[in-house]
Design goal:
Mean pLDDT: 85
Order of helices and strands: HEHEHEEHEEE
Strand order of the largest sheet: 2-1-3-4-5-6-7
Structural class: alpha/beta
CATH class of the largest domain: Alpha Beta
Low-confidence stretches: 1-24, 26-35
Distance between the termini: 73 Å
Number of helices: 4
CATH topology of the largest domain: Glutaredoxin
Number of strands: 7
Helix content: 25-40%
Strand content: 15-25%
Radius of gyration: 27 Å
């Protein structure tokens, strides 16, 4: 048996109280239609950063990552020990060292390349932007007066070798 005023025709057993079932069914249906369940979004990747407590460009790089939707946690203990512990070659060093989802990041790596790394998941130690090139994220503030040096983001292999992952000109 069905009731014509319900949002959908529901068969109601003849032994049940039709009115009680219709009220409960309508309320349940309304709740499902009014408040659809949203799929849970995966948490943004967490980037752990080791840096000097007084480094202004490190702070600017962290802001760049956060503005790009990445989560950060920084440790103001310097980065030399972290670089050694994480296996990043000293010759690729910069002012901060980071780790994200099993990869090591050295220097002013753009958030775009971090996201690409996490999407492609190559077999690698991580990414590096050696030194501190002007125009890279964190080295692009007003104090640099719009100057921009070309630089490469390097994909660093576990053995310390590297190749160009992305060029910025």
């Amino acid at each position: 048996m069905t009731h014509p005023t319900t949002p959908c025709a529901v068969a109601i057993p003849p032994t049940a109280s039709r009115r009680r079932l219709l009220r409960a069914g309508s309320a349940a249906l309304f709740g499902v239609l009014a408040w659809p369940v949203q799929a849970a979004r995966p948490a943004a990747p967490l980037v752990e950063i080791w840096k000097s407590p007084t480094c202004g460009c490190c702070h600017d790089w962290i802001r760049h990552l956060e503005d790009s939707g990445l989560r950060t946690r920084s440790f103001d203990t310097g980065n030399t020990q972290a670089r050694v512990r994480l296996g990043m070659p000293q010759r690729l060093g910069s002012c901060h060292t980071a780790r994200v989802d099993g990869y090591v990041l050295e220097g002013h790596v753009p958030a775009r390349e971090i996201r690409r790394l996490l999407a492609e998941r190559p077999e690698a130690l991580g990414l590096a932007v050696p030194a501190m090139p002007l125009g890279s994220p964190g080295m692009d503030g007003p104090e640099y007066q719009g100057r921009h040096d070309p630089y490469d983001v390097l994909l660093v292999a576990a053995d310390g070798s590297s190749r160009v992952y992305q060029s910025y000109r």
